[in-house]
Amino acid sequence: MFLLGTLVNGVLIVVGTLLGKLLNRIPESMKTTVMYAIGLSVMVLGLQMGLKSENFLIVIISLVVGAVFGELLNLEEKLNDLGGWLENKVGSNGKGSIAEGFVTATLIFVIGAMAIIGALDSGIRGDHDVLYTKALIDGFTALILTTTLGIGVIFSAIPVVLYQGLIALFATQIDRFVPKALMDQFIVEMTAVGGIMIFAIGLNLTGITKIKVANLLPAILVTGAIVTILYNYHQYL
After folding, report:
1. How far, in Å, CA of 149 to CA of 32, rounded?
2. Position 95 pLDDT exceeds 50
């Protein structure tokens, strides 16, 4: 079953959120300190990913062009509107709004190479090991995030399942038409671009900045376009 890894990932996000909700009655000062700890950890993770680039010019161009498209499409506001709609349906959860928990968790769980690599392995080879590992990481992260951002984190399971499920569904076609060397290069540069976005999420969690990270998401598509152009250019040399 090619969706097994993706479904396990979604289930563990839900389980992690519910467990985190049980721990939600911790002192506000502790929540604040925990939030800073999460933010700092996410920043270090993003920095490690960002440094994996083999051509940082691709990362810069992708982020700049992606930011332009993201601002034109106003993706951040649309994602917040979706979170707000969920909040209106189920009600607010106090200090951490449902919208904030949904948006922050979605960005953390969706951005990154493990989602793509794991979904491709599930769809092509029926190997779910990468997604099982990601599921455990996401479940623990959901637990921690829920203690500070609230129950909104649980709704991030929906875009995670849809995103990874679609990749797994079309994995065979992707593997057939995309050369391995091109895919490997894309994953390296996409990891770096995603790492910069995750670093920005960490800055937001610590309250240092209020970067519209969702407006940077088109950078991943721009990365794919640039890497493809460069790959084909080198092939014809």
Report:
1. 11
2. no
